[in-house]
Amino acid sequence: QVRLVESGxxxxxxxxxxxxxxxxSGSVFSINVMGWYRRTxxxxxxxxxxxxxxxxxxxxxxxxxxxxxxRDNAQNTVxxxxxxxxxxxxxxxxxxxxxxxxxxxxxxxxxxxxxxxxSS
Length: 120
Hints:
The chain is mainly β. It has strands at 3-7, 10-13, 18-25, 30-39, 46-51, 57-59, 67-72, 77-82, 91-100, 106-110, 114-119.
């Protein structure tokens, strides 16, 4: 099992920036894909961005050009730099890790979520 601890959420004005961090810990074979998802009361949880261990990234259309996901494999930490924030980015942001266990099975875990609020 992987424990994910998120930080960096908060309140920011439209046009501002925030940086989210997610540190993973646990005894696993490898952490493969890490990513960020978000959920609002009106929507189901949706993909924001993912990054593979090798650095391949994938972004939701709504955040392309504004958000950047990066990863430090040595520290098992993933970051989400969010620029040009809009009120519609307001959500609870969740970190996710897809990993291979020591038994060589696949699994994934979620963080507890961090609130991002963008005021207009």
